[in-house]
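Review form for a predicted model. The reviewer records the input and the model, then writes brief findings.
Reviewer: anonymous (R2)
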Amino acid sequence: MNLYPSNLGYSMRRYFVDAFHFRRVAAIPANSLVLDLGGQRTIKRGQFDIARYDLRVFYLNLSITKGADVQADAACLPVAAAAVDVVICAETLEHVYRPELVVREAFRVLRPEGLLLITVPFLFRIHADPYDYGRYTDYYWQTLLQDTGFSNIAIERQGLYYSVLTDLCKLRANNLKIPRPFGRPIRWSLFHLFIDPMQKWALRRESKASVQANPFLQSFTTGFGIAATKSLVNTYE
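Model under review:
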């Protein structure tokens, strides 16, 4: 699967979100029961589609327009305790006023040693769906998950300074107000002459050990990919 962000509408942020799910979901045992919180069966963003895997997936969303199996609030799930194997919460918690309530509900409905997968933006534009409430650091997520009762917590920074810089430039290029009939050829030129090389440059730079070890460059990220396991002590059930 080619994950390279090869058009103006496909952000570096989405590139990292897709890469995280391709890697993590491939390791989920076949026939696992997966609850996708805030997910949508139709009009999917990016290249990742969990429906392509041998998993039993049901979607829960506040909106009835996105093909959800259940319309409900993720902070009050109509799901029995210890009922599902995996909970996925992709680019959703920034739209939740109190994300700790959703995390606690995810803990409750997961079976012991069940898996929670989260992706959340950090240095990325405000995008209401219908609202955008917050950006939280990796320290916040680590503390929240530990306090909730999760273990084996792995938090990865999805892109560093150069990815953030590239996304800012790409988003701006994608939203330039260019009069017709010049819009499409100018955007095409911007992408091929500047944005495309910049994306490749950012990914190459961030693969270098010197960049990975630089505290300043590490202090920027497009967001976080998080995996955690429900411990055997069911604190919030």
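Findings: The longest helix spans residues 183-206.
Further findings: The radius of gyration is 19 Å.
Recommendation: see findings above.
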